[in-house]
Amino acid sequence: MSSNSQVNLHRSPLKPQAAAPKVPTAFEDLKIPRTVLENLLIKLLSAYPKSNLLQLTNAISISSHMVEILLEDLRRKSLVEVFQGELGGNYKESGNVRYGLSESGSQEADVAFAKDAYLGPAPVSLDEYNRIVRQQDVRAHQVTRIDVTHALQEVYGADRLIPVLGPAINSGRALLLYGDAGTGKTFVATRVLNSLNTSVYIPYAVYAAGNIIKVFSPQHHKPVDSGESQQSFSFKDQYDKRWVLCERPSVQVGGELTMSMLEVNHTEHNRVWIAPLQMMANNGILIIDDLGRQTMPVATLLNRWIIPMEYFFDNLSLPNGQQITIPFILTLAFSTNLSPELIADPAFLRRLGYKIQFHPLAHADYQALWEKIAAQRSLSLDMSAFETLLRLHRQHKVGFYPCLPKDLVGISRDIVAFEEAEPVITPAVLERAWEVYFTSDGNGGGKR
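^ that's the sequence the OP posted. Answer follows.
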């Protein structure tokens, strides 16, 4: 552990903060139009011809009873055909019966795909989404010093940050992390959610004002439920399969951020409507890294967040021109190498609840980090090499940035391997690593 705390950091498995969404047993419980389900079922049969009832039930994630009713309705409309298995048998034997689209059903599928290419579990209603997100508000589950100490156990110099970050996390307000490049701002921000020992439910998709918006993203959402809880045949022992039990989401974006990423949009290759970043990050953290490097002016980006930060809701424009309101219940963290006064006016800075400055490491933490990383790379650190390192820092006026040990040890390992030398970082090896890492004045490459 990087800090000197002797606190017992044993952690129990994540527990859901909110009650599990109940399994809908009737169409009224779904609170979405039946035509949405029919179109989704038609698209599934177009993508996966001759599927059986179990396959369709798993794909659309509602009860098999409702899927059977939908299939019967589609058969009466001559959109779906039934195919008997090789063994014959009763029509109701779902493992033996396959379903496929008729010619008119295939035409309906083309129309449905042209409007919306989403394939997956049935969406949840916007009202249900809003209700669950509010129940999972981070402010309803206050963290303690032990929680934050656990979250930052890999952070050297964490003792100074813990007393500030703890109250900041509990406030639910936006954070501004600023300081020189390489001081660990983004590294710390990505570990903030480790202080919360609760899991949250994320929907696969949300239905809002005539549109299906895909929310669940494997890139940003990490499931914690293996699915074993869903094996029971009793609905009371299950939860709604249209939701996924996940760790709290952590969404990070940097210089590539554009305003379109903050609105509902579709991919270039199909018409699947994707939730904006802040919707994916609800009940978690959204990190805007490298603030000031985005293509749009900083003022434009910051102004986008004034209403959400102040009132904890966000207005989104939909593809059909309508607007919806969603909760904005997340930790918004801005990370920048610039001085706060250069990126925002005083009025906006006041809206940022916590402004946390990051500094280079203290000597003891810096040396401990060097020794740890060298050992991880199976290298020993010659003590005379560390004295050489300190001299280079003084000579070039470079701070003890946490990014340097990992980068310089990596280059040193490359040099040792190439020279077929002993696995030791010597003064000579270290000087070579420093020279190729930094620019000619010794100040350019290492700070990021």
